[in-house]
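## retry 2 of 3
previous attempt timed out at serialization; input unchanged, resubmitting
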Amino acid sequence: GLSTQLSELGANSSGMSKAEVLQLMEDQNKAAADTAKQLTEQRDANVKLFTEAINANDGFSDDLKKQLCEAQDLITADMAPEQVKALSDNQINMGNQISAAARLAGQGFQVPGAAGSVHIGVDDSNAVKSLQETMDRRLGILDLSDAKRFESTGGKLLEENKKFADKVLRQFDAEHAPALREEHKMLSGGDGVVSDVVVPVSWERTVIREALYRLVGLQFVDVNSVTFGSSYSIPYSYRDTTAAGRNSTRKYEGQSIQRAGVIQTAETAYNLPQKISFEVSDELRYLTQAGHINYEAVAENQRNASRIIGEDTEQVIFNEVLRSADEFGAVPVASENLELQADGSDTILILANFPV
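## retry succeeded, writing output
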């Protein structure tokens, strides 16, 4: 038969002992762990170099920085610093493009697919800005102090007025983009057309802006800028007075907790049919400048138009606020007889309820 015999390795044997095998395995595991740790440290250093380069850009928002830093998943431990820098530079260039597009959108430039007049142009946002500065200089607005220009609002431009005016002007620029672009090109070439039938769109833009800048009533109403239509819905919410929230919130051990109530609804708003026109003639400017008086007709027409539109809008706003205040809490009264008080001598009549 067959037999197997196992024997311990002798001192002169070329094989490895059990202790030597265990030591070899331990050394290999330690070397693998050290290699993995070194790779992790090297990748962390590359990621730190990448994120610090992006976060150093103060012009980027926190959300944009977070979005750009998501590319760190592409970084490996064996990447050289030059490769990491090339990746960060690529992300920074992309961030500059995104940030520039956001600023252009805030200044009224519409990206492809947005509502408005679609056209191909170069640097249209700067064209509108340059055109507006030209009009402000021509009409003497740049020479006015804030105390004089914003006299009705305490000598400064209120934040609510600026926000609403920016919304209106962005919509205005979108609807009149071709005309504004052409006017900028004509003024840049030293030529322009102003007559009693053609009024520059930039002049209309200035009238609207100055009228909105000086409104006091914008602090008392909820305003928005929407596309013109017969009506539109205004969503809002308010507290349900029959539910918890004003009282019944004190609960002791074992008592049920009441639920607060919020009612969400909407109201339909209709446009007020307000229309007004102004006659602006370039001939008047030539006639007044030909004399010895110092009178700028075009600038004065702009100031008068802005003032008239602003005063008319102010009156509409405060009339609505006043009517709403008078209607609040009104109680219907049926068949009230004031004949007993109306004897010819009384100047004050007492009502059963007020307001009615």
